[in-house]
Design a protein that fits this description.
328 residues; alpha/beta; Nucleotidyltransferase, domain 5; 2 domains; five-stranded mixed sheet
Length: 328
């Protein structure tokens, strides 16, 4: 059996088709009975822009991408897709059948699972994109040798997830794993969720863009005078004190979040991912390591605090969505 997964972001769809467990070299059954994978299980990949706005155009886009992967599979002499997983930056019901709100896609209160199954005639699995991201890393990436892991993903905002024995934590209302909204400083900036002092309000891409606007060295690096996290990081690498302080503050916030999360979840591995984290790891990771070393929770209890950078790149969540489809 071949399963497909798609990661649908604000402007792009990344896709991956996987062989069934045991169907390619390197597959194995891992901890907790979960299926461990190897990158050789990934048969084909795709990456396309989209202009999704509304549930019907979402279904249209998924159908087109499934057909594209099926064509690639046929050309490679591989079986066609038998089930599809979908990772969405969205809030959804606990049963993962209805999308409550996907702001970037203009989808609200839509029975996306049923709509896709009726259109494609295939079993469909939906989940949050951060859950899928960590499921990919759990299957064949940075957490592949661990029984439990948490993800902190610094992108435009801050995503998070918790996976144990190959399954993501869903929560009572389907909202578990919103680790970016852990409060690290009640007197901190207002977050996108309207609370104050969330991890996301310090370390997300939008937060760093806000900070960069007040750092002259970062502004000078931006051709249009509107600096991003990348310009702020480059100014820090050039030794600008204000830029270094801003990046240090973001690293401190990640560590402060982890100080709260480590005793709560007791993960074997912490996966640090997202475009901002991976592009700024040289600046952020030393601060995170230092802060955790100096202010570790449960000082008298030995704790493995393995911090690993995500390894699967832009197809991690698509791979994770495919893994979820194969499980369910």
């Amino acid at each position: 059996m071949t399963v497909a997964g798609f990661d649908i972001g604000g402007t792009k769809i990344a896709g991956a088709a996987l062989a069934s467990p045991g169907g390619a070299a390197g597959s194995a059954v891992g901890l907790g009975g979960s299926s461990r994978r190897a990158e050789t299980d990934v048969l084909v990949r795709s990456h396309r822009p989209h202009r999704i706005h509304g549930p019907e155009s979402l279904v249209d886009a998924v159908e087109a991408n499934v057909r594209e992967l099926d064509e690639q599979l046929a050309a490679a002499g591989q079986p066609s897709i038998a089930a599809v997983g979908l990772g969405l930056a969205a809030w959804m019901t606990r049963d993962r059948e209805t999308v409550i709100w996907a702001a970037h896609l203009g989808v609200r209160d839509a029975p996306v699972k049923r709509m896709l199954e009726e259109r494609l005639g295939l079993p469909i699995v939906l989940d949050n994109d951060a859950d899928c991201y960590l499921m990919g890393e759990d299957a064949m990436g940075a957490a592949a040798d661990a029984s439990s892991s948490i993800l902190i993903a610094l992108g435009t905002g801050v995503g998070g997830a918790y996976v144990a024995d190959g399954r993501p934590l869903i929560g009572a209302h389907g909202l578990a794993g919103e680790l970016g909204h852990v409060t690290v400083d009640e007197s901190g900036p207002r977050c996108s969720c309207d609370a104050f002092g969330c991890l996301e309000a310090f370390a997300g891409g939008n937060a760093l863009r806000r900070d960069a606007a007040s750092v002259p060295a970062a502004v000078a690096l931006a051709p249009d005078g509107a600096p991003t996290a990348e310009h702020l990081a480059n100014a820090a690498r050039a030794g600008d004190a204000e830029a270094v302080a801003a990046m240090d503050r973001a690293g401190w916030a990640v560590a402060a979040g982890l100080r709260r999360l480590l005793p709560a979840f007791d993960p074997e591995v912490v996966v640090l991912g997202g475009t901002v984290m991976l592009s700024c790891a040289d600046l952020l990771l030393p601060v995170i390591e230092r802060e955790l070393g100096e202010h570790a929770p449960l000082q008298g209890v030995p704790q493995p605090r393995r911090l690993e950078l995500a390894r699967l790149g832009g197809h991690a969540a698509a791979i994770g969505a495919a893994v979820l489809a194969s499980q369910r």
